[in-house]
Amino acid sequence: MTQALWQRQLRDGLAEMNLSLTDGQQQQLLAFLALLNKWNKAYNLTAVRDERVMVSRQLLDSLSILPWVTTDHLLDVGAGGGLPGIPLAIALPDRRFTLLDSNGKKTRFLNQCVLELGLDNVDVIHGRAEDCQPEQPFTQISSRAFTALENLVTWCGSLLDNEGEFLAMKGQFPDDEVAALPAGWQVKSSHSLKVPGADGERHLLVVARAEHSR
């Protein structure tokens, strides 16, 4: 029953968001959600337990930032249960995604997802952002429910290209976090996200270095 409900919710949600994904991609997304639901019982990967809202809160929410993903190689920090990184990687198979998390249980789950779903465009790194040393900086870094903006730019700023941007997913617009951004950083743009079936506000904040500090 759950699978049929998820299938319908995903199909209807994608249509409402004007997103066109193949049947194969939709099946991959649902297979990922089934894995997340199964592992969550033992690994506590996400606070969402109600199967009726998982498509909206996990898949559609992650896919809501698709229009702003412009890079060929995205870093998802605090990747946790693979949100938004894995749904984005399924939707954009021609792009590369690196998922970074310091929690060993979570990276084990992510590696299992990569294996079972055949995601050859995804790399998983177990470690802290401060210790990560990529070959070259990223032009876009996503985060969802990871940390405050101040911490995000402080911990991960060295991983971002000078001209790069953070894609920070938030609930209500975080006025206090924006006010606390360190000198040299600015909110380049903010976008209200429409997620079918989701209660409450959702926002995407695009954060970049201030012009004069580049």
Task: Please give the structural blueprint.
Layout: H1 2-16, H2 23-43, H3 54-63, E1 73-77, H4 85-91, E2 96-101, H5 104-117, E3 122-126, E4 138-144, H6 149-156, E5 160-170, H7 175-179, E6 185-192, E7 203-209
Parallel strand pairs: 1-2, 1-4, 2-3, 4-5
Antiparallel strand pairs: 5-7, 6-7
Helix pairs in contact: 1-2, 1-3, 2-4, 2-5
Subcellular location: Cytoplasm
Organism: Marinobacter pelagius
Protein name: Ribosomal RNA small subunit methyltransferase G
Characterize the structure shown.
Keywords: Cytoplasm, Methyltransferase, rRNA processing, S-adenosyl-L-methionine, Transferase. Its EC number is 2.1.1.170. The structure is a single chain. With 214 residues, the chain is of the alpha/beta class. The chain has one domain: 3-Layer(aba) Sandwich (Rossmann fold), CATH 3.40.50.150. It starts with a helix and ends in a 5-residue tail after the last strand. The chain has a 7-stranded mixed beta sheet with strand order 3-2-1-4-5-7-6, with helices on both faces. The chain has helices at residues 2-16, 23-43, 54-63, 85-91, 104-117, 149-156, 175-179, and strands at residues 73-77, 96-101, 122-126, 138-144, 160-170, 185-192, 203-209. The model has no long low-confidence stretch (mean pLDDT 93). The relative contact order is 0.14. The chain is 37% helix and 23% strand. The longest helix is centred in the first third of the chain and has 21 residues, at 23-43. Helix 2 packs antiparallel against helix 4 (85-91).
